[in-house]
Structures are given as structure tokens and as C-alpha cells.
Amino acid sequence: MSEPVDALAALRAGVGNDARVHLNNAGVAPLYPRGLAAARHALELMQGGSHEVLELFALHDRARATLARLLGAPSDDVAFFSSCSAAISQVAFGMRLKPGDEIVLPDQEYPSNAYPWHVAAKGAGARVVVVASCADWSLDSARLLEAIGPRTRVVAVSWVQFSTGATADLHALAAAAHGVGAWLVVDAIQGLGVIPFDQPASGADVVCGGGHKWLCGPLGLGFLSARAEVRDALEPLAVSATTFGTPDDPVDATKPARRDRRRFEPGNPLVLASSAAAGSAEQLLEVGIKVAHAEALGLRALVVEEAARRGFEVRPGGGPVQSPIVTFVPDVDPARLVEGLRARGVSVAPRGGGVRVAPHAHNTVADVERLFALVDELRVGLRST
What we know:
Elements: H1 3-16, E1 21-22, H2 33-46, H3 53-71, E2 78-81, H4 84-94, E3 102-106, H5 115-124, E4 127-131, H6 141-146, E5 152-158, H7 170-179, E6 183-187, H8 199-202, E7 206-210, E8 222-226, H9 228-233, H10 241-244, H11 271-287, H12 289-309, E9 313-314, E10 326-329, H13 334-343, E11 346-347, E12 349-351, E13 354-357, H14 365-383
Parallel strand pairs: 1-11, 3-4, 3-5, 5-6, 6-7
Antiparallel strand pairs: 2-8, 7-8, 9-10, 10-13, 12-13
Helix pairs in contact: 1-11, 2-11, 3-11, 4-5, 11-12, 13-14
């Protein structure tokens, strides 16, 4: 038996200790055993107070290196935040938009990748150009590219759309954005951990993410990775001694902010959350992201098959790379169906006018079978009320 298969079996065994079925991995995924162990280790070190501070900081740096491996980015390009939303906000408010600047944004973006741009644009006198999707909820790549023009300062897009799993053509968007001197800012939270990613190859200038979805880490951790010249152009929104140097340095009001990722990390590091996220990410890396993607896509295909067999409409998703996310529209109220499934221990989400299912490598065929057995049971009751 190969090593990835052994790692995959261990992964499923760890999550399988929970009798519930986790099919909302695009929402909040279960914390992996390695992540829980890493968090406990960090907490135990904290009992040592100042005696363990250097080891705690070392844990934080190791976590940064692990997340950088997932991104395919240099470790020192990765900055940690309290959430993916906070990382996106750092970019939107820290880039000094000017009157007349334009931000290109698809219309089905997750609100946390839309509101920061709308608010930042309003404050600066800039304009958000919202690009309509196709009638079937797929991204209109041609219309997105056409919206990029001489006033465009930023193209902000999710790599994977949260409602349907539609994926953006990052290479094409990067080429068009760079052609007019704009940045491509990517929210990658709905793909990192389940789809292989290479930040330099993608062409993205900034990539933001978070730990609690496909990375199967904790709530309360976001991160940002930016090219050096882009990072230097962003004004830090929150500052402390570490923004400019160390707590032992004398205050110098003329001193510029650091040029490395620490310009965005004021105060104490997010050791507990970063350690937990790295622990889970290391478990995924042992399985292999390509293996995780293939396993998740196999389960997605089964969901599509079972949904179609019942006559449900399936949102197409689509794009350059296939996401495991699939949304089907049942013949009963989707929100009530989701509520009933959750009450019976199966987590899914109401999205895109239907039921979003997001299988990961830790899921199994039995999980999908249980989902649809309950769907059939619940449909009977929902039709009669």
C-alpha cells in the first residue's frame, strides 16, 4: 500500500470518530486530529509563560512555512490575520484607491470579498464594476475580461465561487489586469486544501485565504500572500512595535514600516490558530493535494449522479479547474431540507437557490449514500406540509 493511501486512511479514520457526516467543507470543516494536537501543544507551551516564548514564536514561523507550501509561495510572503476577511480588507483599504479608479468584481462573490471593495471604493471616490454571471450561475469569463479597462486598478475574484464551485480563469485575468497596470487579488479560501495551487504560476498579485474551510483548521485564522512590490505598496491598517521593529527599539515617528510580511502583523502572533491550521494542513499535505482533489471529485460525481437520478437540477459550476462543490436544486424547499439534514447529523448548506454539497478527501461513498437516503426520507415529509 502506498504512503498517500495510508495517509488517506488515517485521515478518514480520524474524522470517522465523529458519527456525523461533514459535507459542508466549503463552510466550516472539521478540525483534523493533527490540528487539534498542535493546538493543545501550543496551549501547553503557554503554561510556561516567558520561558516558552521563543518556542511559541518558532511554532508560528513553522506554521507560516506550511501555509507557504500550500500556496507555492516563499514563506516570508505570508502574513497572518484573524480571518480571510481581515486579509482582504487590508488590501482593499491599504492600497490607497483614488477617485476614478475601478475595481472589477463578479456578481456572485462571497459577501466578505465584496463589501470591503464597495466600502473602500465609496471612501475613495472609486467605482466597483460588478460583472453579471451567466443565467445558469456560471462565471462569464468573456464579460469579466471585457470589463477590465484603462481605469481598472484591481480585479478582485474568488478562485472558486462559494455558491456553485465555478472557477475563475486566473491566468487570463492576470494577463488582462497586468496589461493595464492593475492587480489581480484572489480570494482562494474555497480551493486551498482541496485543489492544487501555485501562486506564482497563477499570476495573482495577492492571494488571501483562511483556515476553517478546506484546510480543516480552526476558525479565527486568515492569511495573505503578496508579491514583494505589492506588499510594499500596501499601507498597514493596524500597527504596533513589530510593524516598525521590536518592542526594545526607541520610538521614532519618522521610521518607515517594515518591508516584510511583519508590517501586517501587529502585536502578539496568532500562535494558537496558526499552529492548529498548520497541523491540519500538514495532514493534508501528507495525503497530497492532488490525491485529495481526485478523491473529492469522485464523490462530487456521485452527488451529481444521485441528484440527477431524482430529477434535481444541478448547477453547472465549470471553469478551468473542477471544484468538488456541487449545488443541486431539489423539488422541496432547499432551506428546510438543509435544516432537516443538519438535525440528522449531515452538514450541507443552502446556497445558490439549492443545496450545496462540498465533499473532501475525508468523506466516503457511505457519506453520500447517507445524505441521499435522508434526502428521500425528508422529501416525503416536506411535501406533505
